[in-house]
Amino acid sequence: MKDDATVFVVDDDKDLRTSLGWLLRNAGWTVETFESAHDFLREYDAQPGCLILDVRMPEMSGPELQQELKRRGSGIPIIIMSAHADVPVAVRTIQDGALDLIEKPFNRDVLFERVEQAMELDKSRRRRQGFEAEVSGRLKNLTPREHEVFALLVQGNTTKQIAWDLGVSARTVEKHRERVMKKMRVDSAAELILLAVDGGILERPEPQTNDNGEKHAG
After folding, report:
1. Is 7 a residue whose pLDDT tops 90?
2. In 3D, which of 218, 138, 151 has the Cα closest to residue 183?
3. I need a surface site. Which of 27, 87, 93, 154 has the fewest CB within 10 A?
């Protein structure tokens, strides 16, 4: 098996589901197939993996299932597959976050490549979510005053500036700063800022352009 992730296939064409399931299992993936979007929604519980989804299905189409998953907050990577890959459908599904659209009959190598990409994307997303949850958990251990010091530190303020803003002594700020560092498990303000960015608390700065048109970190 590739790993503990699953390739979910939703297509109302039984023959295609069977052949696609066999093909993917033979390549080493765990596969679950569904005849309809409703069947998939009843069984899917945010498991790791990716979704291969047909566009035209009765009751609920592929794009409609994509929208429903989006509404539920699901980030599962989606590969749209259709024998009717017209431009409007392709544009809409990609704009809505689908990884790619593959036309039937599909090319096996292209399909495998997209599944690999989708699995890596899902793994990366879950790692990021796990780290963000961990950082959020550390934040909950801060007192209200430590939250204030944390917020000002990650904005790049010095101890003197924080003391001025909070109306306390620099020595008091240093004590709070030490506790913030300990609870957030970092050794410097630079590490704290990086943690806040990687943990989804602080927005990553956009690269700035110098006079020569070259981009550099802001």
Report:
1. yes
2. 138
3. 87
CATH architecture of 141-216: Orthogonal Bundle (1.10)
- pLDDT score, position 218: 46
- Give me 83's structure tokens: 């024998």
Where does 44-167 have alpha helices with state H? 62-71, 87-95, 108-139, 144-154, 159-166
- Please check whether residue 149 is in contact with residue 180, taking contact to mean a CB–CB distance below 8 angstroms: yes
Going from N- to C-terminal start, the domains of the chain cover 6-133, 141-216
pLDDT tens digits, one per residue of 127-165: 888 888 898 999 999 999 999 999 999 988 999 999 999
Question: Which pair of tokens denotes residue 92?
Answer: 């809409």
- Read out DSSP for 171-184? HHHHHHHHHHHHHH
Classify domain 6-133 at the CATH topology level. Rossmann fold (3.40.50)
Cis check for the bond before 105: say yes or no (omega within 30 of 0).
Answer: yes
Please name which of 131, 127, 124 lies closest in space to residue 196, comparing C-alpha atoms: 131
